[in-house]
């Protein structure tokens, strides 16, 4: 049995679900553990089945509590030995040996996977399946959002995601995408796109308004909050081009953008504690 722990916000959940589907390519008993949301309040909780038309196989963690809760457990020793690192310590990436093992071999013993699995390698063999899975549910999203989608289809729309909020006190993530990054990204878009219209998405719209001010080619999207915040990702995916933050939320917004001529600007560095950015795509522009 293989169990993938799900935790974090919707962007992280989407990567964990993708890894879960990746494991299912060569393994039968693969489950998601969503029990963390019973004790931790991650953003808006477990959102995948509410936002997308998908079904998941959920693990009954009451049967495995003793295995996954202790560093002395057999699960911990097995996974630590296999992946050459402490994956029960919220590790976000496996080392190259670990990736090689998961990619090339059927896993014959029980494993419990903790991590964010933010690597395009895991998407390559399940890309079409994931794109089909991550179709947003056809639910009422409100007149304002429908009007914005209509507008985005009629102009050279560019989503700009600026994440502040929970990054403010995280030295590994904060200010990687600073004002200079966004100004440079907009210059690139301006040089390649005729009359772009920028849609600004952020968890700190007031900061954005202070820095960018009022411009004829800017629209601040500030009405999708709390349980409705996922709609911002939907709106990003409907824009023709994307400027993303070092955030899985806007990464998915850009990845789900079906415009064959899209321009995506992304940060070259995702996290200061990592030497490589495993989320760079060949046709995206990293700055």
Please give a structural write-up.
The chain has a six-stranded parallel beta sheet with strand order 6-5-4-7-8-9, sandwiched between helices. The chain has a three-stranded parallel beta sheet with strand order 2-1-3. The longest helix is centred in the N-terminal third of the chain and has 15 residues, at 10-24. By secondary structure, it is an alpha/beta fold. The chain has two domains: 2-133; 143-286, Rossmann fold (3-Layer(aba) Sandwich). It is 36% helix and 13% strand. The termini are far apart.
Give the helices and strands, then pairings.
Blueprint: E1 2-5, H1 10-24, E2 30-33, H2 48-51, H3 65-68, H4 74-83, H5 96-104, E3 111-113, H6 121-124, H7 127-133, H8 143-154, E4 156-162, H9 179-192, E5 196-202, H10 205-212, E6 218-221, H11 230-238, E7 241-243, H12 248-255, E8 264-266, E9 285-286
Parallel strand pairs: 1-2, 1-3, 4-5, 4-7, 5-6, 7-8, 8-9
Number of domains: 2
The profile of the biggest β sheet is: 6 strands, parallel
Strand content: 5-15%
Tell me the CATH topology of the largest domain: Rossmann fold
Question: Given the helix and strand composition, which structural class is it?
Answer: alpha/beta
User: Which ranges are low-confidence, i.e. pLDDT below 50, for 5 or more consecutive residues?
Assistant: 66-101
Task: Tell me the quaternary state.
Answer: single chain
Mean pLDDT: 85
Highest CATH level, the class of the largest domain: Alpha Beta
Question: What's the total helix number?
Answer: 12
Annotation, overall tally of beta strands: 9
Q: If classified by CATH, what would the architecture of the largest domain be?
A: 3-Layer(aba) Sandwich
Helix content: 25-40%
Walk across the major sheet and give the strand order. Answer: 6-5-4-7-8-9
Label the overall shape: globular
Radius of gyration: 20 Å
The SSE order reads EHEHHHHEHHHEHEHEHEHEE
Distance from first to last alpha carbon: 41 Å
């Amino acid at each position: 049995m293989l169990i993938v722990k799900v935790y974090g916000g919707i962007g992280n959940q989407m990567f964990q679900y993708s890894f879960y589907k990746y494991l299912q390519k060569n393994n039968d008993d693969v489950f998601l553990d969503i029990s963390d949301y019973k004790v931790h309040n991650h953003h808006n909780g477990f959102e995948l089945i509410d936002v997308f038309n998908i079904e998941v196989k959920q693990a009954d963690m009451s049967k495995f509590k003793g295995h996954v809760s202790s560093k002395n457990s057999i699960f911990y020793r097995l996974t630590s030995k296999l992946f050459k690192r402490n994956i029960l310590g919220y590790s976000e990436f496996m080392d190259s040996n670990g990736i090689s093992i998961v990619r090339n071999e059927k896993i014959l013993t029980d494993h419990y996977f903790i991590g964010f699995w933010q690597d395009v390698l895991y998407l390559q063999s399940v890309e079409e399946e994931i794109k089909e899975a991550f179709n947003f549910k056809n639910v009422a999203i409100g007149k304002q959002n429908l009007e914005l989608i209509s507008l985005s289809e009629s102009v050279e729309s560019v989503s700009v995601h600026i994440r502040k909020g929970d990054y403010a006190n995280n030295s590994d993530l904060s200010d990687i995408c600073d004002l200079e990054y966004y100004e440079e990204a907009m210059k690139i878009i301006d040089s390649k796109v005729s009359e772009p219209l920028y849609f600004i998405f952020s968890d700190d719209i007031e900061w954005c308004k202070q820095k960018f001010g009022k411009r004829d080619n800017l629209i601040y999207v500030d009405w999708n909050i709390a349980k409705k915040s996922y709609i911002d990702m939907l709106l990003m995916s409907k824009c023709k081009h994307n400027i993303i933050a070092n955030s899985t939320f806007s990464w998915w917004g850009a990845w789900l953008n079906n415009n064959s001529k899209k321009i995506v600007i992304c940060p070259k560095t995702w996290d200061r504690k990592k030497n490589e950015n495993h989320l760079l795509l060949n046709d995206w522009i990293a700055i």
